[in-house]
Amino acid sequence: MLKIASFFVTALFFSASLHAGAACKEHPKNEWLHVLDMQKKIVNEYGFAIKKFQTSGDCYEIYGWGLNEAKTEFVKIEVYFDTKTGEIIKKKED
Protein backbone atom coordinates (compact mmCIF):
# COMPACT_ATOMS: atom_id res chain seq x y z
CA MET A 1 0.00 0.00 0.00
CA LEU A 2 2.86 2.35 0.80
CA LYS A 3 4.38 1.79 -2.66
CA ILE A 4 1.09 2.76 -4.32
CA ALA A 5 0.82 5.95 -2.26
CA SER A 6 4.45 6.78 -3.05
CA PHE A 7 3.79 6.25 -6.76
CA PHE A 8 0.83 8.68 -6.73
CA VAL A 9 2.78 11.34 -4.84
CA THR A 10 5.64 11.03 -7.34
CA ALA A 11 3.21 11.17 -10.28
CA LEU A 12 1.57 14.31 -8.89
CA PHE A 13 4.96 15.96 -8.39
CA PHE A 14 6.09 15.28 -11.96
CA SER A 15 2.72 16.28 -13.39
CA ALA A 16 2.82 19.61 -11.56
CA SER A 17 6.39 20.28 -12.69
CA LEU A 18 5.49 19.61 -16.34
CA HIS A 19 2.77 22.26 -16.22
CA ALA A 20 4.74 24.71 -14.10
CA GLY A 21 4.76 28.33 -15.15
CA ALA A 22 7.82 30.51 -15.23
CA ALA A 23 10.23 31.39 -12.48
CA CYS A 24 9.62 35.11 -12.15
CA LYS A 25 11.48 37.22 -9.62
CA GLU A 26 9.41 38.19 -6.60
CA HIS A 27 8.76 41.93 -6.27
CA PRO A 28 6.74 43.84 -3.64
CA LYS A 29 3.21 44.42 -4.97
CA ASN A 30 3.67 48.19 -4.80
CA GLU A 31 6.49 47.88 -7.40
CA TRP A 32 4.40 45.89 -9.92
CA LEU A 33 3.38 47.55 -13.17
CA HIS A 34 -0.30 48.42 -13.04
CA VAL A 35 -2.39 45.85 -14.93
CA LEU A 36 -3.55 48.38 -17.54
CA ASP A 37 0.00 49.63 -18.11
CA MET A 38 1.19 46.04 -18.51
CA GLN A 39 -1.59 45.26 -20.99
CA LYS A 40 -0.70 48.36 -23.02
CA LYS A 41 2.95 47.29 -23.07
CA ILE A 42 2.00 43.78 -24.21
CA VAL A 43 -0.09 45.10 -27.11
CA ASN A 44 1.92 48.18 -28.13
CA GLU A 45 5.52 47.06 -27.54
CA TYR A 46 5.36 43.29 -28.01
CA GLY A 47 2.53 43.26 -30.55
CA PHE A 48 0.60 40.44 -28.88
CA ALA A 49 -3.19 40.13 -28.96
CA ILE A 50 -4.50 39.19 -25.50
CA LYS A 51 -7.22 36.60 -25.11
CA LYS A 52 -6.73 36.04 -21.37
CA PHE A 53 -4.64 38.04 -18.88
CA GLN A 54 -3.94 36.81 -15.37
CA THR A 55 -1.49 36.81 -12.50
CA SER A 56 0.35 33.53 -12.07
CA GLY A 57 2.44 33.47 -8.89
CA ASP A 58 4.99 36.27 -9.30
CA CYS A 59 4.32 36.65 -13.05
CA TYR A 60 1.80 38.27 -15.28
CA GLU A 61 0.62 35.68 -17.79
CA ILE A 62 -1.26 35.93 -21.07
CA TYR A 63 -2.83 33.58 -23.53
CA GLY A 64 -3.33 35.06 -26.95
CA TRP A 65 -1.77 35.43 -30.39
CA GLY A 66 1.53 36.73 -31.68
CA LEU A 67 3.84 36.38 -34.65
CA ASN A 68 5.83 33.16 -34.80
CA GLU A 69 9.64 33.24 -34.50
CA ALA A 70 9.97 33.59 -38.29
CA LYS A 71 7.46 36.49 -38.16
CA THR A 72 5.47 34.92 -41.00
CA GLU A 73 2.17 34.03 -39.33
CA PHE A 74 0.15 34.48 -36.16
CA VAL A 75 0.19 31.60 -33.68
CA LYS A 76 -1.34 30.93 -30.28
CA ILE A 77 1.00 31.93 -27.47
CA GLU A 78 1.38 31.65 -23.73
CA VAL A 79 3.72 34.28 -22.28
CA TYR A 80 4.95 35.03 -18.76
CA PHE A 81 6.17 38.53 -17.85
CA ASP A 82 8.10 40.05 -14.96
CA THR A 83 5.59 42.02 -12.89
CA LYS A 84 7.97 44.95 -12.28
CA THR A 85 9.75 45.38 -15.60
CA GLY A 86 7.31 43.78 -18.03
CA GLU A 87 10.19 41.73 -19.49
CA ILE A 88 9.28 38.42 -21.14
CA ILE A 89 10.37 35.58 -18.87
CA LYS A 90 9.00 32.64 -20.83
CA LYS A 91 7.15 32.30 -24.16
CA LYS A 92 5.50 29.21 -25.59
CA GLU A 93 4.04 28.97 -29.10
CA ASP A 94 1.43 26.43 -30.18
Automatic annotation (TrEMBL):
Domain PepSY: 7-92
Keyword flag Ribonucleoprotein: no
Cleaved signal peptide residues: 1-22
Keyword annotations of the record: Signal
Signal recorded as keyword: yes
Pfam families tied to this protein: PepSY_2 (PF13670)
This protein's name: Probable signal peptide protein
Record organism: Thalassolituus oleivorans MIL-1
Lineage, highest ranks first: Bacteria, Pseudomonadati, Pseudomonadota, Gammaproteobacteria, Oceanospirillales
